[in-house]
From TrEMBL, chain A:
Source taxonomy: Bacteria, Bacillati, Bacillota, Bacilli, Lactobacillales
Name of the featured protein: ABC-type uncharacterized transport system, ATPase component
Pfam families in the cross-refs: ABC_tran, DrrA1-3_C
SMART domains linked to this entry: AAA (SM00382)
Matches recorded under InterPro entries: AAA+_ATPase (IPR003593), ABC_transporter-like_ATP-bd (IPR003439), ABC_transporter-like_CS (IPR017871), ABC_transporter_ATP-binding (IPR050763), DrrA1/2-like_C (IPR025302), P-loop_NTPase (IPR027417)
Molecular function terms, GO-annotated: ATP binding; ATP hydrolysis activity
Signal sequence, start to end: none
Domain of life: Bacteria
Domain (ABC transporter) ranges: 2-229
UniProtKB keywords: ATP-binding, Nucleotide-binding, Transport
Entry's family note: Belongs to the ABC transporter superfamily.
Coiled coil: none
Family annotation (PROSITE patterns): ABC_TRANSPORTER_1, ABC_TRANSPORTER_2
Amino acid sequence: MLEVNKLTKTFGSMVAVDNESFTVRPGEIMGLIGQNGAGKTTTFRMILNFITADQGDILWDGHPLTNKDYDILGYLPEERGLYPKMRVDQQISYFAQLRGMKAKDVDAQLDKWFDRFQVKGKKSDKLKDLSKGNQQKIQLITTLIHMPKLIILDEPFSGLDPVNASLLQDGINMMRDSGACIIYSSHDMANVEALSDRLIMLKNGKTVLNGTVDEIRNSYGRIKLMIESQLTRDELISFEGVEKIKQDGNRFELMLKSPEVGQTIFTAATKNGYIPEFSQQAPTLDEIFRMKVGERDE
Amino acid sequence: MNKLVIIMKQVFMKNVRSTAWIILVISPIVLLGIMVGIGHLVENSNNDPTIGVVSSSPTITKTLAKSLPATKVKNFKSQTLADKALNHKKLDAVLVVPVQNGQINAKLKIRDGGKTVSTKVIQSVLTQLQVSAQASKLNLNADQVQTLLKPAGLSTKTVAVNDGKSAIKNDKTNTSNRLIALSITVLMLVFTMSYGSMIAQEIATEKGSRIMETLLSSVDATTQFFGKLAGILLLLLVHVLLYAVIILVGWHPIMNLELVKSLVQNFDFSVLTSINGLIFIIFFIIAVLTYSVLAALTGSLVANQEQVQQAVMPISMLGLLGYIFALVAQGGDSLVVKIASYVPFVGPSVMPVRLAMSFATIGDAIISILISVIFLGLFTWFTAKAYKSNVLVYNQSGFWKSIRSTISIMRAERKKL
């Protein structure tokens, strides 16, 4: 289990991470979201011991991560890098050996991993001769082949086409089922929603969201309303508690101050009977993300 | 397997197969091979000139044929016949030797483009002939002629003055020393440069391509640093051993070549097995180690692949500085040279030269070694620390600014510990 307690890191006058706390249990996937510069990579680098936190601590199974824990780590950096002129199998073997694997065990498992990620290319190819997508897969294999217990993936979906993205999702789920703690960062909210058990949103180093996907969505309540009725735009805006309105033909999308406002609108819209659409939902993660980004800092 | 060993092995295997290293190892061998080949060709090809001699006295022709080394001598009855042969390129020169009153006034006609004819040798043989002719005219016996011809004696001694005492050196050691000094200077430059830039590139490329982050999450920076150094030094060891084997195997065939013989005839090989030889080796090792650590430091400072050349620059600058000082030291001892021979980076290439030229004593050399070793220890310690902060700093604005940010990070990290 990974516990991050009240982590703070400043660079000069800039606060990169401010009082961040979270826990990742074995078999749990945590998504870290936020804009560029929100503090995601800094968080990862503190967990990896690349930089020291100003305050707070990071515990792995109750003790601070040390050099002895390198072998249980799997890390995919945001900017990918492998040896272009080195053979793919030698490359994977080198990184796996640095994680404590034996060379012959790597050889024995390589085919399985090539199948799992559907790598197109020979094991004896030089890395630079593979396509970019396949190079990414090789990097993923180097990250996962030693079956790490703590996996940190910095923007793993960037640059992947939908087919490869779903291969990666399968891979991550497989690691979760093996009992690993997984943290990853992403810009793509669709992936985050499908994959994450829990998520954290950072904004300028501050944690603005923290919980399971359902918890976060439900904390907003059903404040999104899709409606198609006799009511005009002006009529809809005049209801108290309507914060935003978007028109698409006869259809309107409203953001409500609270779920209760929906009831008033429903009554008014159905006073003449049938209406084609009335759907009140919690906002999607993507919408929450946009709302949070747009909010001013307190 | 120990992670340091894994890194060492990988660095070694990667570079041992690289074209750059293979060229580095092979080029001197190829060069030597070409030299030896040319030597062989020169020795085996026929370069002996043919001279036509026109003389009334058969004794003169006979003596010339006997005394002129590597020269074919043909007797001609008349100058016309000899000139004809010359015009047909059958002769390289025609020597006409008329004798009048025991006085020789010879004329030599050399064909342009023919094989080289040594006029000096011909003249000395003719002089001898004239002397013996004159001697017999004056009724001198052989002993008297000998006494007459004996040159005045002059013996040469070279002394090296150290602390008011002078020590006699023989000329052979002097030449040997110069040769050794020159070889040390060049060897140090070549090895520190090539291996220094190899390390700098190795590290800079990994950092520039962001492989470094993956590596650092598997193994701590210090282990990685020493693993890389060990890998490159292993490569150097293989390089030196390879040459040692080649020299051992090829020693006799090479030394028997006339060309090599003429090069090393003044060379006293005992210098190599003396205490000086050991000190030279120690300095060589220190120099390579110090430059390797410097290379690792500068290599870890770059932000991208384009800055790799900048990382190599400080190594070349210091290396050249040492080279220049070493060249100056071969010319003579001065205060600047003296000081330089104790300064780290430069000292290991200057002190061996001073030692070889007898400007410095073994005691001086040991002091310089101590200074260099202590410096190397501290420098390695500092670099290993800096390396950890360096490899994660990506300062696009330049190489020198990276040094500043590294130092500030090191300070910040130390405060926390």
